[in-house]
Amino acid sequence: MIGSIVRGGAAGAAGTTVLNAVTYADMAWWGRPAGEAPAQVVDEIARDLGHPVPGTGGSRDNRLSGLGALAGIAVGCGTGAAVALARSAGVRMPWWLGGVVTGALAMAAADLPMARLGVSDPASWSAKDWASDVVPHLLYGLVTHGLLSAAEHRP
Prior knowledge:
mainly alpha
């Protein structure tokens, strides 16, 4: 079980690297700024837990930005670990379906808290907004699931 978690976390980390690279390429191509939603989610959750993020002004904003990015890494690695545990329990899918499902799980783990906390309303997103969210998560899923599948089929 521990081996599955470690393999899943590593595959999720690789998938997260691809997700981040595609997201940054999208930002560079379109000239759009980094999203503030991850930092806002962290801020809301920390406040709800009774441990607001300390600081004021720019230093607090920078702290929240860093924590938002770390939360994204945690979601990516955690999703990879969860998928690896599911695979070790016998859940097997074709590579393309497993990739889509893995990407959808990661996307849900990122987007549902935003919607629940009122940070963002996916119902109001444009097609371009959805593409900027779906494409990186799909690639995350394909890489993460593909690496997990490959790790099981090594000689």
